[in-house]
Amino acid sequence: MMKKRLLIVCICILLAATTACSAGGNGGLGSKEKPKSKDGKTVVTISLLRPDAFYLGVEKKFEKKYPDIDLQFQIFKQEGEKWGEGDFEKYIKTTNTALLSGKGADIFEMSSLPVGKYVSKKLLMNMNDWMEQDKTLNKSNLQTNILEALKVDGGLYVMPSSFYVGTFVGDGDILKKTSVKFDDKNWTWKQFEDISQQLIQKEGDSSKEHRYALANDTPEFFLLAQVKNNNTDFIDQVTQKAKFDSPLFEETMLHIKKMYDDKIMTSKPADIGNQLFYSTFLFWPEDFIDGPHRFYSNPKLLQRPHSEGEPSGTTFLTPFQLAIQDKSSVKEEAWKFISFLLSEEAQSLSEREGFSLLKSVNEKKMNEMHEKVKSGAYKLPSGKAVKISEEDFASFKQLINTADRLASTDNKVLSIIEEESKSFFSGQKTAKEVAKLIQNRVTTYLNE
Question: Which of 1, 2, 3, 10 is nearest to 319 (CA)?
Answer without folding.
Answer: 10
